[in-house]
Amino acid sequence: MASEDVVGKSTGESAVTTIVNLAEEAKLAREGVKAPGYAVVSICKSLVAGGVAGGVSRTAVAPLERLKILLQVQNPHSIQYNGTIQGLKYIWKSEGLRGLFRGNGTNCARIVPNSAVKFFSYEQASSGILWLYRQQSGNEEAQLTPLLRLGAGACAGIIAMSATYPMDMVRGRITVKRGMFHALGTVYREEGFRALYKGWLPSVIGVIPYVGLNFAVRIVKG
């Protein structure tokens, strides 16, 4: 189980480029003189901007996500969806606009906090890694290198995945009428806290190179 579905990756990457730059600017600004409330404002900006980027990117591909699920679960003996265009048209005709975005709220409830935590964590991790790097003799004026950015991105991916993994895990157990929080409560009561993190390790291993390279490459290109 990955932190983001494949269908939303390219759109999400495009939507967050500005957010990455915002995090970098905030990091650099902290090295100079700043007002007492700057840190709080910077934290809020990172969280809000990351969350908005995640929500927008997920909503933009919500119809495709809905169609993907319907294609996966439809009865092979009673096929209603025969492809992307035909499938989207069928949903539009049978369910209307709301049908195209059904389930998007649940997806956003998972993606928005994940993106918010990820970009905030990247800002903090990059600052911390740079500070540690500058403690070494001869590196007092060093700047973040692609390798250091890769490390910061990997840290951000691990933190974001760990913070929101229970929501990702229960997504497959959500009942149509009761939703995510009911599913979380049911899993916790019936299987305990550890059940909320089943499959966490392989998910983290998968997200480390993706998020790390994403931050490192995008900022180098920018």
UniProtKB/TrEMBL annotation:
Keywords (A to Z) from UniProt: Membrane, Repeat, Transmembrane, Transport
Recorded coiled-coil stretches: none
Solcar repeat extents: 41-128, 144-222
GO BP term, pick one: transmembrane transport
Pfam families in UniProt: Mito_carr
GO CC annotation terms, alphabetical: membrane
Gene3D superfamilies: Mitochondrial carrier domain (1.50.40.10)
Membrane topology: Multi-pass membrane protein
Subcellular location per the Swiss-Prot or TrEMBL entry: Membrane
Chief place of localization: membrane
Keyword set includes Membrane: yes
UniProt entry tagged with the keyword Repeat: yes
Membership in a protein family: Belongs to the mitochondrial carrier (TC 2.A.29) family.
Name recorded for this polypeptide: Mitochondrial substrate carrier family protein
